[in-house]
Known about the structure:
Chain A: Pfam families: NrfD. Chain A: InterPro entries: Electron_transfer_protein (IPR052049), NrfD-like (IPR005614). Chain A: It is found in: Cell membrane. Chain A: Belongs to the NrfD family. The structure holds 5 protein chains of 5 kinds. By secondary structure, chain A is an all-alpha fold. Chain A has a single domain (about 5-335, about 355-395), classed as Up-down Bundle (Formate dehydrogenase/DMSO reductase fold). Chain A is about 65% helix and about 0% strand. The longest helix of chain A is centred in the middle third of the chain and has 30 residues, at about 230-260. Helices cover about 20% and strands about 20% of the residues of chain B. The relative contact order of chain B is 0.25. Chain E has helices at about 35-40, 55-65, 70-75, 90-95, 100-115, 120, 125, 135-145, 150-155, 165-175, 180-195, 200-220, 250-265, 285-305, 315-330, 345-355, 375-380, 390-400, 430-440, 440-455, 465-470, 485-495, and strands at about 235-240, 265-270, 305-310, 340-345, 370, 405, 455-460, 485. Chain E has a 4-stranded parallel beta sheet with strand order 2-1-3-4. In chain E, strands 6-5-7-8 form a 4-stranded parallel beta sheet, sandwiched between helices. The longest helix of chain E has 19 residues, at about 200-220. At the D-E interface, α1, α3, α7, α8 and α12 of D face α2, α3, α5, α7 and α9 of E. One iron/sulfur cluster binds near residues 144 and 145 of chain B.
Amino acid sequence: MSAITSYTQVRPYTRGWLALMAGLGAVIAVALGAVWHMEHQGHWVTGMTNQVVWGLPHVFAVFLIVAASGALNVASMGSVFGRVGYQPLGRLSALLAVALLAGGLAVLVLDLGRPDRLSVAMTHFNFKSIFAWNVILYSGFMAVVAAYLWTMMDWRAKRFYKPAALAAFGWRLILTTGTGCIFGFLAAREAYGAAVMAPLFIAMSFAYGLAAFILVLSLSFKMTRRSMGDALPARLVRLLGLFVAANLYFTALHHVTQLYFAGRSGVEAFILWNGGIHTALFWGGQVGLGGILPLAVAYGGCGHAPRKRAMMASVMVVLGGLAQVWVIVIGGQAWPLDLFPGMEASSTFADGHVHDYAPSAWEVMLGLGGIAIALVVTTLGITALRLLPAHLGEATGSCRSPD
Amino acid sequence: RQAGQPASAAQRWGLLIDTSKCGVECTVCVEACKAEMGLSGHDRPRTDAQYVRKVNVRDPATGAAHSVPVMCQHCAKPPCVDVCPTGASMKRADGIVLVDRHICIGCRYCMMACPYKARSFAHEDQSGQQPHLPRGKGTVEGCTLCVHRIDEGKPPACVEACAARARGAMLFGDLNDPKSEIAQKVAREATTRIRADLGLEPGVRYQGI
Amino acid sequence: MAYTSNGAAIEADEEGYLTDINQWNEDLAGQIAKDEGITMTPEHWEVVNFLREYYSEYQIAPAVRVLTKAIAKKMGPDKGNNKYLYELFPYGPGKQACKIAGLPKPTGCV
Amino acid sequence: MTIFFAILFSVSTLVFVAGLAMKIAQYARTPAPLKIPTTPAPLTKGGVALRLGREALLFESLFRGDKLLWLFAFVFHLGLAVVLVRHARYFQGEAGPLVALVQPLAQPAGLAMVAGLTLLLARRFVIERVRYVTGPSDILMLALLLAIGVTGMLMKCVIHTDIVMVKAFFTGLMGFELRPLPADPLLGLHLLLVCLLMIVFPFSKLLHAPGLFFSPTRNQTDNPREVRHLAPWAAKLDEGQ
Amino acid sequence: MAAAPFDIPALGDPAEHPVPALKPGAMAASKPYVAAEAHQQPLGFPGELAEGWEKRAIDHMGGLLSKYRSLQVFMDICVKCGACTDKCHYFLGTGDPKNMPVARADLFRSVYRRYFTPVGKIAPGLVGARDMTREVLDEWYSYFHQCSQCRRCSVFCPYGIDTAEISMAARDIMDSIGQGQKYCNEIIGKVHRIGNNLGLPAPALLDTLEGLEEDILDETGVPVKLPVDVAGAEVLLVTPSADFFAEPHVLGLIGYAKVFHAAGVSWTLSTKASEAGNFGMFIGNYEQMKKISMRIREAARELGVKRIIFGECGHAWRVAYSFLNTLAGPWDFLDSRYPVPQHILEFTSDLIRRKGIRLDKSGNDGMVLTVHDSCNVARGARMGTEPGGQFTIPRAVIAASVPKLVDMHPDTICDKTFCCGGGGGLLTDELIELRVKGASPRMEALKDVVDKQGVTHMAAMCAICKAQFTKILPYYDFDREMVVSVHQLVSNAIVLGDND
Ligand code: HEM
Ligand code: HEM
Ligand code: SF4
Ligand code: SF4
Ligand code: SF4
Ligand code: SF4
Ligand code: SF4
């Protein structure tokens, strides 16, 4: 009946709330323990080596950061592209963007060799480094999205709503491009070094972000007993399908371009054919679980209710996405640097053969800790502020608890 | 250049390595480097630091084989420096590429960027450190071209050792000084750079590959 | 505050309710009604008279429901409702009619 | 200067401690005859402890009431807390782990405190309603803290003082031993204002710090039906019956 | 509605609550009638202001400060942060800055500072300390009777400073020097003399109840009884006397009767305890509050009941829930399986949950309900076993009785609810301007759901709220019958008959 959404906080300190926070807190505590161990012992206790220098933490961090910018999409749909149906979701979308970014950055920072020197990173900038630019992009993203959120929430700021929405939208595109460029600029690494990395990352971000959004939206609605209706999840899952298709398309494009480059057939064969775990994750995880299956669920209609389909597809996209980032980050490093093209090489420093990498439990803990941080931030956000719609679609009973 | 003078762009320090004089089994330069830089290691080859390594290269077509010492190539256009977010990776005016271990945050982006895999990460606490090269857990390090020796007017340790205990395959000098032996030899003979196609203009040149 | 009726001063409280119900007379009722902007009609008198009767029996004004029931009985079921009483006494049948009838003001949460 | 401050510090510390103790004793002694927690309220003592903890550490009610003020207040108090913990090093021989942990936060904390105070002061002039309820003492209180913060920050960042001597002075003072204080005007001003703060504390609105914990609307359990709550003076009325 | 002799606040969007510009002195003239000697004396208060009242006022203040920790602490710890300034419905409705809770409290605090704090004694100007003078007293009288003691300010204050406590103390001081409020004190006198706020004598009560029994029988064909003074009944129902008298209150009373009937629980009213309300709280007087409460104890004793249940009334429930045990306990002579006292909504919701009564929503067809959380229930009491039960239980009962229930804007419900505007002893005709203006935040939120969600009725669970709304709704172009009792809805929906 009403076009106006009412938002309510989530009631804190309920049994479920406490259990959730305790659970997430425990994961974070374990992650911090793992960090302490890794920092105290040094990185040799992880699976990372002088050959595979970025490991599982980076997989999680890149996934979260990429998803962060994509999570903002839903808000942009509502405000930049005027899709009114998405507007009630804008606040959660912005919050999730900040939360995911916070989680990703936390992992990234905690995996540094010297996380205690964070202040150095904040005060010493090498403006030639895309990485340094990313520090600025990330902090700026937080600020822009926070401002955007404010304009969504405070009626006094209504007139800044559009500009803020546009700024946030622009910023997030730059941000994802920046993240893609971290890899794109590594000319020496054969797996990367291609211009399609930028659009590929944008497609990835759309898909991961929306999937994360759908999961958080559905779970928070379920846990706080809010009603949603079927129209919205149906629309969201179709949109997700679109993004997944785009991701598949750019992945294909990437590999075709790679094959076209002279001298890149080795690495391509490695990823696509004989790379063991990486190949398995590429086909089974990235393409199958994260691409074809969700497409089928989104468009094929598997007979389940839209909300269930949306959840299923999102879980697949998240898992497939992690696989995809693994293939990019780890797979790309596993393929040896070719110092002497056309020659066979060997050395005490592992030249000339594929590098193996097996993540340690510590890295898994840290990565999961990042996800937990993102969820804690999200939970705190929807607890402290009115971000979550009281209901979506037709209101049913209205026995709302106090905030 | 006089000892104690600041580094200047007048110099461009470089190495010329004649692989034909490099024995397959010879690791004199590697051992010398370890001793000079205090790289005692933990006997964990995957994570221990190596500033210089011997790469055995074989041409599958001809069967011709070489053994090539590879260290930081002290690129003129070093990607490690470009990507380093804090500016810890830096190039001295005289072309030597170094890591400032006080501002390195251990992000390892430089290791991702270096095409020569010339850098190592200090994966754990180090012992047996040399006073001129304090090594800290959690930062990145690599061949310094023995900058501490150069500043005292001495050649790098590996070069000295190779000359003394092997066949003198390594030549050190100022590529910018036309009178220097290395500059004359580079001008005279056919030398190559590893992955010259990348256009990084390394300061280390090779002969015979 | 006070009214004058037949030359005598009749005391009332700040709001115009008589302090002594026994000093009430019909002329005074008309006067109070006029102050309230009401012209007394037979319908008004029905209500006022019922109030006085009820009061003399129970020492309190009747509940609204009792009043409407009584009015319905006397004047027909279509008039036995709140709306009708409010038409007669716009400020509320309880209080305004009581004032005119010389009754004390009902107190409490009403 | 040394002797002047030695005396001043002794006196103001005495006023501060005694005044505060008397006030707290007064609050503790005064009975709360009726159960008046603002509901919904916790049902158990543990719940009350949590509620008070959230009020003291997170300013929960203020957050619900005024988000912007909460932000300012939070920034200021957090900065203040860190600054005060950092100051423990002037009084302790051996710095504890907490003190060590916050040592690197000097600039951010001092900045947060000063910025928070400035914003709090600004809103007293900018917002009409707040201007209306603001009295001279409210402005002076903020100004006093601001002055302390600014002189402190100046010492920290611009004109350094000999903090080893400062430490010696205070550790000495605590053992009733006179050691010299650096003859530094900025430090003198800082300390003078700090003494003033300590003296006014027990007589001013700064009592909100201990007072929060005695506020009956926040520190009572919601169990009046289960447990009969009776103040001594009210019990006397019972006996009269 | 006939034009009112004052402006009626315009209603906007409750989500965009602009704070009104300050209009100093706008309500300075608003004050209730002063109690006459005849109203003062029965309560043991001096009949009028007499020579030396200033000193007596200060002495009394000193006494209160040593008896109430709340007062002492609240006097000291306010930091004038202003978080409360835009929370009071009277400020929002009138724009008078002295209706900002902190400014209201400062009227009291200024005197406290002058006489009880060193700084106020030495440098009064610095901290705004003032002597107790006639002008100050006039301000007190005016503005402490513009506080409905709703405690909304205390919710948002970082220290929980409750201006209601300060208003109560101020009113107690004014009573103690002979400057009482007529409305409250006259009513308290009636409770002592007759047994209820209305002054409804026993015969009138019996007659009224008999009439109601007839009505129910006519309407439903079921002989539902409204028993009075029945010794040995299980339940003593204590309900505001307005439930016997006014609309829609009385419809709620019928609802209670039907619930008891359907549940088969024996119950009784009492002529002695024919009032749930306790205006002793409004005037901040512990002894009066206790004396009024003791009537309930006596009635329960005399009738030999097992449990006490309170009808729908906000401040009555606060006194009952929070204070009754203190004032008139211990209640060891009642059945210990039940809390003392219980709220009728606790009783009914429990029956609904246990399927002890049946409700048919079609009895309320066409109604879309919203609910007004009465301030004293919301912020001063509880229902059920969980914190916040006072919000969920009424909603559960209403939801079970009506086809649709929606909530008003979240800033205006539950513990953030706005007072109806007539609480705290202000429900008197001479304060009509204050009442109309003070109701505006509630009316704004109501209009919002009426416009956007098609709400037709607003349920209230307090006699004062119901009386206030019936009076005030027409000023805002709503129908006066829009406000309904919660048990009126139950009454319409309950299925009687097939219970034996
Ligand atoms: C348990 C400790 C404390 C708590 C929970 C607390 C809490 C608060 C809160 C909630 C406010 C209201 C918001 C505001 O106006 O900023 C406030 C104000 C204030 N606090 Fe505290 N505080 C504490 C300790 C202190 C201390 C130790 C000081 C000073 C030495 C202090 C100085 C102030 C001042 C000056 C204000 C008024 C700010 C203004 O005028 O706007 N507080 N405090
Ligand atoms: C006995 C009491 C105090 C002494 C002896 C003292 C002394 C000092 C000294 C020596 C510094 C300079 C620090 C440096 O150069 O590293 C300083 C800084 C500072 N002081 Fe104090 N101070 C006292 C109390 C206070 C109080 C009560 C406050 C706040 C209400 C305060 C606020 C600051 C601030 C904000 C700074 C700058 C930031 C920092 O160094 O932490 N001081 N103080
Ligand atoms: S070889 Fe590697 S580490 Fe050395 S300068 Fe070149 S890019 Fe940097
Ligand atoms: S690891 Fe150190 S030197 Fe390498 S890029 Fe990172 S900060 Fe720079
Ligand atoms: S120049 Fe020095 S640091 Fe570099 S490889 Fe030779 S010995 Fe090692
Ligand atoms: S108790 Fe209610 S009426 Fe009184 S000042 Fe506070 S908000 Fe206003
Ligand atoms: S919110 Fe509390 S502390 Fe702040 S001004 Fe109001 S009463 Fe004072």
